[in-house]
Amino acid sequence: MEDTRGDSGPLKSVRRLFDVVEAIEALQEATLTEIADETGIATSTLYEYLKTLEGVQYIIKEDREYRLGSKFVRLGTSSKQVIPLTGVVTPYLERLAEDTGETVWFLIEEYGLGVYLEHAAGDQSIKTAHSIGGQSHLHCHAGGKAILAHLPADRVNKIINTHGLPAMTENTITSRSRLLEELEQIRDQGYAQNDSEQLEGTRAVSSPIVIEGEVFGAISIGGPEHRLHGEWFEEELPNQVRSVTNEIRLDRLYS
Amino acid sequence: MEDTRGDSGPLKSVRRLFDVVEAIEALQEATLTEIADETGIATSTLYEYLKTLEGVQYIIKEDREYRLGSKFVRLGTSSKQVIPLTGVVTPYLERLAEDTGETVWFLIEEYGLGVYLEHAAGDQSIKTAHSIGGQSHLHCHAGGKAILAHLPADRVNKIINTHGLPAMTENTITSRSRLLEELEQIRDQGYAQNDSEQLEGTRAVSSPIVIEGEVFGAISIGGPEHRLHGEWFEEELPNQVRSVTNEIRLDRLYS
DNA sequence: GATATTGTTCCGGTAATCCCGGAATCCGTC
DNA sequence: GACGGATTCCGGGATTACCGGAACAATATC
């Protein structure tokens, strides 16, 4: 029997449960048959999954449509709270967003992908491109490269092997050696840049939070290239992110 | 065989899965044996649950400790996005927090409990008392009462039957008739107040967002009683929340 | 408004799986 | 290096997840 999730653990019903949950997530709101189509689970079986999810109050059935309940919001908050830096980072993000006027992100690495955990919008910033909890490849933006630059070499290789280096734009780094070279450079200069590598017309500058050799995440400033250019992009923003990540490092160390 | 979750759905393994997830949530970080103690599941069985959760990348095993992964953050974001007002409410919350200097909340009702979904902190505000996704009884604070006041009478009764009216402080309304009376008054005046009913020494003012007879949530302003008193608490804040919820209503209607 | 169609809920038998005891292995500690 | 504790692995037996199909409900069609 084929299985979309491969050998991801012995308990089939748990795997299927998350198939169901993710199907509802993807569809936002959906009826039983819609979810059945999405997952390939027989309607009578799916009915039991949905009934149970409703019983534990993790999904909500309104009229005939199912949607995710706010208990997932609670789990999300709990999940974030355990991550060492989430509490510390927020005020720094807000100040940086205010000072620069651009959108600022706090990003971590998990299972080889980047995850956006916090966000602060400056007055100039356009509406958010990513959502909190959203995943992204690491090789195609400043924050991801900043993190990769400080992961052990074997982990970087494993991540590349698992997720590849897919081209998001024509500027995306798609060669392993090119990437490793750039990571070297990022380590040297203490910050990373993204020039239309993830999304055409957008740029970013990022610096990692490294404490005792371990990366805990990265702070990024991003915006449209018509604002992020020249000295502002090459000098000013790199200095600002680096000084903020340094402050966070010290805050974390002495508190 | 006894079951903590009662008749909450036919699929036992799904119920147990959420027992495991919630145990990890409660413990924040925990080893296999700690989770086994918390849930009462045999270690060999639990091992399979954790293995599967790790396989689908919803938990993270570091060293010997398990914790919730950020996929729950993603699900939380998705869950919030489906709720009709989340997108709309944020800028209004921020403005209200700035204007009043106090902490401001957006609250909804789900399964008979209040859930805090958004939050904005004014410069005067102390650190947040609730967390995003956190649940609370509805009868003991302004936002909850504002919502209850606009739910159908039979739903209100059902909620009281299910969750009771537990006393959180000596000011908490613990009598059904007293509560119903106050809800009546809240409907009349268009806002609700909380005077040390949830937490000693804190007050709040709240107004519901009602569109075509349906409550979609409530906005609350909360703070310590030494700041929330007199005309500010009795006149100014009620006017401010009401005007904001009214704006949100109109924003929602014509957009 | 009656009928057709589509979607949901219920039921029961069976194959699969979850489940736990116990053994083996790993890890930290004395 | 031996001990104790925790984790991982294994196997068989009991439970339950699973799906077909029937009953029922809701919606669409004429």
Explain what this protein looks like in three dimensions.
Two copies of one chain form a homodimer. With 255 residues, chain A is α+β, with helices and mostly antiparallel strands. Chain A folds into two domains: 5-73, Winged helix-like DNA-binding domain superfamily/Winged helix DNA-binding domain (Arc Repressor Mutant, subunit A, Orthogonal Bundle), CATH 1.10.10.10; 83-254, GAF domain (Beta-Lactamase). Chain A has helices at residues 12-27, 32-39, 43-55, 71-82, 86-100, 142-148, 153-163, 176-189, 230-253, and strands at residues 59-62, 65-68, 103-110, 113-120, 135-136, 192-195, 202-211, 214-224. In chain A, the strands form two sheets. A six-stranded antiparallel β-sheet of chain A has the order 5-4-3-8-7-6, sandwiched between helices. In chain A, α1 packs across α2 (32-39) and α2 (32-39) crosses α3. The longest helix of chain A is centred in the last third of the chain and has 24 residues, at 230-253. Chain A is elongated, with a radius of gyration of 21 Å. Chain A starts with 11 loop residues before the first helix and ends with a helix. Mean pLDDT of chain A is 93; it is low at 1-6. The interface between A and B is large, with 53 and 53 residues. Chain A binds a DNA duplex (30 and 30 nucleotides) through residues 10-13, 16, 31-33, 41-45, 47-48, 51, 64.
